[in-house]
Amino acid sequence: MNDLRFAFRQLLKNPGFTAVAVLTLALGIGANTAIFSVVNAVLLRPLPYPEPGQLVQLDTAQSGKASTLIGSATFVEAKAQSQSLARIAAYSGGDMTLTGAGPAERLVAGAVTADFFPLLGVQPALGRNFTRDEDTPNGPKAVILGHGLWQSRFGGNPDVLGRTIRLNEQSYTVVGILPARFQYPEGFQLWTPLALGEKEGTFVIQGEGTMLLKAIARLKPGVTLEQAQTELRTIAQRSQPRGATAAPSGGPRRRGGGAGRGEGEGRGDGEGVLTLIGLHEQVVGDVKGMLLVLLGAVAFVLLIACANVANLLLAKAAARQREMAVRAALGAGRWRIARQLLTESVLLSLAGGGLGLMMAFWGDRALGQWSGASLPSIHGIGIDAWVLAFTLGVSVITGLAFGLAPAVQTWRTDVNAALKEEGHGDTGGHRNRLRHFLVVSEVALALVLLIGAGLLIKSFSRLLDVKPGFRAEGVLTFQVNLTAEKSSAQKVNFIKQIVERLSALPGVEAAAATDSLPLTDFSRIGVADVEGRPPIDFRTAKREDVIPLSRPTVTVSYFDAMGIPLKSGRTFTSQDARPTGGSVVVNESFEKQYFPGESAIGKRIRLAAGPGKTARWQTVVGVVSDVRQSGLAGDVLPEVYSPDLDDSGDALSFVIRVNGEPAGMMSAVRGAVAEVDPNQPLYNVMTMEQRLANTTTSPRLSAALLGSFAAVALLLAVVGIYGVMSYAVAQRRREIGVRMALGAQRSDVLGLIIHGGLRLTLLGVAIGLVGAFALTRYLSSQLYSVKATDPLTFLTIAVALMGVALFASWLPARRAARADPVAALRAD
Fold it and tell me: CA of 600: how far to CAs of 469, 567, 597, in Å?
């Protein structure tokens, strides 16, 4: 307690020193606490289910690409034959429209097998799970509500259990309410039975298409992941006839992970290699790499902060050298003196940790706002007991780390020499070498962070430079999900009426509809036969010979509304929109893939419909620019645009190009839709620029965070260089005075000091370049069109850092060069 009281008085005696040190440590500890709170919530905490280590997800791997989607036939076979899985369940995602008891509302719905909730060990907060009778094709229609929907739509009334609600114009009985914290696997608002069965549109005989699902399982006790995976691969191989290759079907599929309700990409059950991955690993897989990079970055920031404060303490210890010598002369041992110094440093660090914790609270809120859907939300991200323990531990260890340097240097002090010093300052070579080592370390660590941030920023810049293939400015979009009760004729009439009313709004230049809007969740996949070439035989064709293509359905004005450039030929006319039109427009990638070296205009193609089905021949009338359907960094598929609205999906998007600010049209757009169908809910009403910005949220966040940490590291490194050079000037003032008295010019003094700072900087840069070359390879998966060892980035950052360090050395050097030699000599 005496040491603590004395340490507290020492810090209050030097408020400037204390404030600088506490703020420096707060930056380092606060950044570590904020990032650790995210890592703790996302990576370290187990899934909130019983025995989470036994939960796995079924994946497929084909041509080196992993997919979380499996065919429904594979799921059925695995469920029937597996002996290593205690339970296996599947789920799919889609949209449903809730009507009655208020305005129509579009909801994100999950469809699950009856085993889904029992497999996870989740019991509804009210009511019950689905029964096996309900999970059959013609079973009773039941629904389980999410807690949020129960509160917002039904006021949290428990009497809703047993009531009937209308979903997609069909009656469903509410049988349960899920707990408030249940959010896996996606942001579903309600759940219905998946009801797999051998009926058209759900589970179709293999070779004619299949429903794509996501599947999870629980391993039996004592069964390893490898054993279960070997068994499932054997099951998948047995269910796939030799040489069979299923055709991609024409149904919708979700981009970005969710399984679609309805037929999917459908490359055949048992396709690729069936694998198992831990469910927790699957949930965090997309963000794990970047979070670990950020955790390493803030650790570097903390190390730089420690080096800075250690340098401050070394300077302070030099001023207290005589005090420590007196203590030693009076009988204080090495440990007693070291204990006093370490007490002061730990107290300083705890103060920095407290301020850093306050910064972390703010940082967590900011991260929550910036990250959006980029981070898994199984657990809430925030400050809990583990984060508090981490902050306390880091604060104490940090205090010991930077306090150890002055303590060790005190042990090396010659007591007799220190007592004889008359205030000439510190002349210890050990201290100087340690200060120089700390500065070199700061520069090296800062360079590694700066290069990493430079690579991410350059990658993000390259991503923004990618042409999406359309003009996003001045475009408003929204989506609707048509109910299954609408016939094909009603659907076509609905689309035409909406487009006509939107086109008539003031300020609208063009309006259109499509079932495959760029940057949204769904696209439709197929393959094509070319007239005059052998048709694709899916029973014998090799996978690499089957080129998948996207097949959006659009209205006549779609290319004008989206601003998609026409490369050759023409776009659609009203004549093409007739059922007998037979015209299609393709993109440049289609022309290159199917007609290399020649024009596609006038060629006839047929979208393959699978064995036993036929499709009509259609003529290519135009070629348009490639569109990045799945995002700026996504692959561009060959595309075939069709004006046949009868063939469109139920998830539709509308596009309006306006002359002015598109966001101002939202109210008028809602009114136009309500005139056609007042019960039709709209969702995702936003500008195309907003959709485009949403696709870059994750790389923007990564670049911003790492860039911020690198900026803090650079600031601390520059302050460190400035502090060491300033101390060197103060320490050598008598020497500088003698030199100037003997005729040294100011330029000589300036060069002397700058040379010392530049030498330390060059050494730090050399070490940092080696470290960056070794560490930036971990960023490879986060980069777009930039190599992890990009020489221009390495060179530019290194030169910039040396320039900043040179400026930091020049400031104290200029002060030394302007010193009066007579005053310097008299001072000593």
Answer: 19, 11, 10
In the three-class reduction of DSSP (H, G, I as helix; E, B as strand; rest coil), residue 459 is classed as helix
Give the Cα separation of 247 and 548 in Å (integer). 9
CB of 69 within 8 A of CB of 248? Answer: no
512: left (phi over 0), alpha (psi -120 to 50) or beta: beta
Mean pLDDT, to the nearest integer, of 303-330?
74
Q: Average pLDDT for residues 606-616, to the nearest whole number?
A: 64
**Antiparallel, parallel or unpaired: β 475-481 and 683-687:** antiparallel
**Residues 157, 202 contacting (CB under 8 angstroms):** no
b (16+ CB within 10 A) / e for 38-52: bbbbbbeeebbbeeb
Who wins on pLDDT, 815 or 201? 815
Distances (CA, A) of 626 to 125, 637, 655: 49, 8, 18
Place of tokens 């009338």: 621
**How far is 175 from 600, CA to CA, in rounded Å?**
55
Amino acid at 764: G
Choose among 397, 283, 388, 292: nearest CA to 345: 397
Query: Omega of the bond prior to 185 within 30 degrees of 0, cis?
Result: yes
- What's the CA angle centered on 179, arms 177 and 183, to 5 degrees? 105
Look at residue 246 in the predicted model and tell me its pLDDT: 44
Cβ-based neighbours of 263, under 8 Å, separated by 6 or more: 201, 204, 209, 210, 211, 212, 249, 250, 251, 252
CA dihedral 718, 720, 725, 727 (to 10 degrees): 150
Residue 779 is encoded by which pair of tokens?
């960023």
Residue-wise pLDDT for 158-194, tens only, equals 999 999 999 888 899 999 999 988 877 777 999 999 8
Residue 664 corresponds to which tokens in the numbers above? 């101002």
Going by pLDDT thresholds of 50, 70 and 90, the confidence category of residue 607 is: confident
How many Å separate Cα 191 from the centre of its chain?
27
Q: CB-based contacts of 411: which residues, under 8 Å, 6+ apart?
A: 334, 337, 338
For residues 1-21, average pLDDT: 80
Partners of 215 in beta bridges:
58, 90
CB 368 within 8 A of CB 377: no
